[in-house]
Amino acid sequence: MLTTDSNIENYILHHIDSEPDNLYQLYRRVNTELLYSRMCSGHLQGRLLKMLTRMISPKQVLELGTYAGYSALCIAEGLADDSCHVDTIELEDELEDFICRAFDESPVGSRIKLHIGDAMLILPKLLEATSYDMVYIDANKRHYVEYYNLLIDNLRSGAFILADNTLWDGKVADNEYHKDAQTQGIIAFNDLIANDERVEKVILPLRDGLTLIYKK
Ligand SMILES: C[S@@+](CC[C@H](N)C(=O)[O-])C[C@H]1O[C@@H](n2cnc3c(N)ncnc32)[C@H](O)[C@@H]1O
Questions:
Q1: Considering the chain, what percentage of its residues have pLDDT values greater than 70?
Q2: Which CATH code fits 2-215?
Q3: Taking the C-alpha atoms of 206, 108, 18 and 133 in order, what is their torsion angle to the nearest 10 degrees?
Q4: Rounded CA gap, 167 and 165, in Å?
Q5: Residue 96 contacts residue 123 (beta carbons within 8 Å)
Q6: 63: CB partners within 8 A, 6+ apart
Q7: β-bridge partners, 90
Q8: In the chain, at which residue ranges do the beta strands (DSSP E only) sit?
Q9: Packed helices 144-152 and 181-195: angle between N→C axes, nearest 10 degrees
Q10: E strand or H helix at 90, and its extent?
Q11: Which of 81, 86, 108, 183 could disulfide-link to 61, CB 3.0 to 4.6 Å?
């Protein structure tokens, strides 16, 4: 994957929009205060999420897997105005204060509502109340198929799903890794999407793989 080459990644980062200061500070705090900082989107993926949001022009967005709030803030930045809104779900309640501070310190944080709990439990309730135009799947890799199955019939024709980590460090195409549960979860998801005639799909080899899915 091109973006694993650090020279190319540096080149790209110097030729795209710069990272807003609040996100630069947030990324630094993630690396000093949180475990598993690698999960945080960062500069390139964040700018892509903002751009994709601009292109899709959603009114209502749903994110599964908030972590530090970085990706939710990038999506919120790409929204047309304050009438548009992001619901984001995070399992770990010890992240709540960290996430709320990040939202409070951002000019677009008020566009986001954080839901603490298991996406599998919260998702059906949110889907009953809201018609989402765009969904970003980035929670438990073992459950991507279940998330998708809950979502797909509840989204309107023309809605988009973006699913992160769908190349899983290349493990999806490496027979040695086929037994671990997260790799199996992603492989099952990729196979499901590949064979689902209800959607158009493309995989971008950016970072860990990003699948763009369009409901026909
Ligand atoms: C890859 S991180 C999200 C990164 C974030 N979207 C970003 O791009 O900066 C995945 C997050 O999903 C959360 N998660 C895992 N299982 C979950 C579940 N069942 N429901 C909600 N969140 C979950 C994890 O706690 C973790 O914070």
A1: 98
A2: 3.40.50.150
A3: 30
A4: 6
A5: no
A6: 71, 72, 75, 86, 87, 88, 89, 135, 136, 138
A7: 116
A8: 60-64, 85-90, 112-116, 134-137, 160-164, 199-204, 210-215
A9: 30
A10: strand 85-90
A11: 86
pLDDT the model gives residue 1: 44
pTM for this entry: 0.97
Q: Position 99: which residue type?
A: I
Phi, psi angle pair for 194, to nearest 5°: -60, -35
**In ligand 1, which atom is closest to the CA atom of 136?**
6
Compute the distance between CA of residue 170 and CA of residue 126 in angstroms, rounded to an integer. Answer: 33
Residues whose beta carbon lies within 6 Å of some atom of ligand 1: 39-41, 64-65, 67-68, 70-71, 89-92, 118-120, 138-140
User: Tens of pLDDT along 118-177?
Assistant: 999 999 999 999 999 999 999 999 999 999 999 999 999 999 999 999 999 899 998 877
Structure tokens at 175: 């027979």
Read off the tokens for 109.
């944080």
- Choosing from 19, 30, 43, 91 the residue with most ligand 1 atoms within 8 A of its CB, the one to mutate for a pocket test is 91
Kindly list the distances between the CA atom of residue 212 and the CA atoms of 20, 48, 104, 136, in Å, as whole numbers in the listed order.
25, 12, 30, 10
Q: Which amino acid is at 31?
A: N
Give me ligand 1 centre to Cα 137, in Å: 9
